[in-house]
Amino acid sequence: MNAADVFSTLSIELKPDPSRTVIRPFSFAYPEPFGKDRPKRMQQVADRLLSLDKPMRERMRMLLQRPMHERHRNADATFLRRFADVAGDLKLPPNLDETDRLLIGAYFSQEYAFESAALFNPSIIPLPDADENDDSLAFLLSLRGIGEGHISSVTFRTGTWDAGDQVIVHPASQQGVPPRIDKEEAGWIRLLCDESDDVSETVLFPVLPSQRSGIEDLRMVRFTDDDGNRSVIGTYTAFDGVTARQEMLRGVDMRTVEMRALTGAMSGYKGMALFPRKIGGQFVMLGRQDNENIWLLRSDRLEHWDDGVRILAPKYPWEFVQMGNCGSPIEIDEGWLVFTHGVGLVRGYCVGACLLDKADPSRVLARTPSPLLFPSAEQRGGYVPNVTYSCGALLHRRRILLPYAIGDEYSAFAVGNVDDLLSVMVAA
Question: Which residues lie below 8 Å from residue 363, measured CB to CB, with a gap of 6+?
Fold first, then answer.
């Protein structure tokens, strides 16, 4: 069998949907040379609004509410929260009624189509309470959405897979709900998405300064603690427009998450992915700290990463420029199965795989000399041409479901057998 024959692509595709929006804060100010000795620009807007007669303001509220209520279940609550955020910086009359507070909140809010340009780089895990003995495995899928200004956020889907060719992705809700910062404790920022009726409504839109320009490429894992307790953990790249760093997401439940920055010498880079359990009493990660090789990192603390070694370097033409992991390792009888990406000619991204020793994952046992998935002739365009990429795969009964992105634009699915995959590897 050839490497290119291991996976069969399915007909299902997930494409960007510009109709899905969230309400996000909107702030503005005068350019610095023009703001001297003038009231704040946002103050001017509030003053203009309140100078209108009351019947006009009531009509404005009616015109606002119809489209907003159609697209957002809790639009009024969102606008009132936004008013509360900005009221302290504005000189406003005391005891404004609800209409005026709603309108001021709406002036300083905007709708954002978070997946209007791209929906890609998927990661997939079993749902936390999924029974792996069921014929169809219930899964949680994350996707990176890109909207105006190339800002990335994370959106979710659920579905089932029968370990064959039957993949069902549940339709996404038309609602989009961004998280609200609740509190910070011991370095973790607690975010509430409790207004989501379905996980597909939860949108992890940038809310922290470190994420100002995007939350990129969430790599989820269903992590098993020493006591057997399972939780959803994910690593992602936070980008503030200048600096990229690794942060971690911890799912308390499907509507409450916690985020924090990772610390240590190995944390200021992209592409880190956590193993699904401790090995030798330590947490273990994969990364690409030097932007060329795959590294293995170990730590006694989940949030701090100082030590690592290079374990896999480019060897074949399709990976000469760079290698990286495509998600968290998958534990099989033979070892740790890791999907990799390689970058070759014309910055083309292909997907391969390697096998690590189960007891000592710094030992690479085997790898694919040829890519498993690569851009085909009809898939070479896209938001970013020549890219086939994934942030994680799913194992069920010795079968693999591999969601992957095409051209950094939309997502597709492929299925294959573990035995077939191992058969096309060669000793490292």
Answer: 311, 356, 357
Helix (H) or strand (E) holding 55: helix 54-71
pTM for the model stands at 0.94
DSSP 90: S
Euclidean distance between CA atoms 117 and 218, whole angstroms = 18
Q: What is the pLDDT of residues 31-73, one digit of tens each?
A: 988 988 899 999 999 999 999 999 999 999 999 999 999 999 9
Whether the CB-CB separation of 109 and 25 falls below 8 Å is answered with: yes
Name the one residue in this structure whose structure tokens are 């996976």. 7
Longest dimension (CA), the chain: 79
Are 266 and 295 contacting, i.e. CB atoms less than 8 angstroms apart?
A: yes
User: Quick one: how far is CA 341 from the chain centroid?
Assistant: 18
Segment 301-323, tens digit of pLDDT = 999 999 999 999 999 999 999 99
What are the strands, taking DSSP E only, across 170-255? 180-185, 188-192, 203-204, 214-224, 230-239, 244-253
């509410």: which residue's tokens?
Answer: 65
One-letter amino acid identity for 4?
A: A
